[in-house]
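Q: I'm building a small set of examples for a reading group on sequence design. Run inverse folding on the following structure and report the sequence directly after it, with nothing in between.
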């Protein structure tokens, strides 16, 4: 955590717009059949038995706005989600942008 906070501080000092997720898709297990929900950091956050699986719709919109005029992007997609019907909507929405 100390390292992450240090990177946030350095980004601010250098005027870098560091985009971090503000909402998440969570579930109680890493499974296609697990029910999932979307939570916000400012609200419930990732609590108890839940684990973070992906970014939420607000973060997708924020990231899409930040890269809309980019000529080239590099990134990583968690391909396991392509097989998970429950998360395909979120993945497809993020790839559209």
């Amino acid at each position: 955590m100390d390292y992450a906070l240090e990177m946030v501080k350095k980004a601010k000092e250098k005027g870098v717009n560091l985009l971090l997720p503000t909402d998440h898709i969570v579930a109680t297990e890493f499974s296609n059949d697990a029910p999932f929900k979307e939570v916000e950091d400012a609200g419930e956050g990732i609590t108890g038995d839940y684990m973070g699986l992906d970014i939420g719709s607000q973060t997708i919109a924020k990231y899409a706005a930040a890269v809309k005029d980019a000529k080239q992007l590099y990134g990583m997609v968690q391909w396991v989600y392509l097989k998970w019907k429950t998360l395909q909507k979120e993945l497809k929405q993020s790839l559209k942008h």
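The chain has a mean pLDDT of 80.
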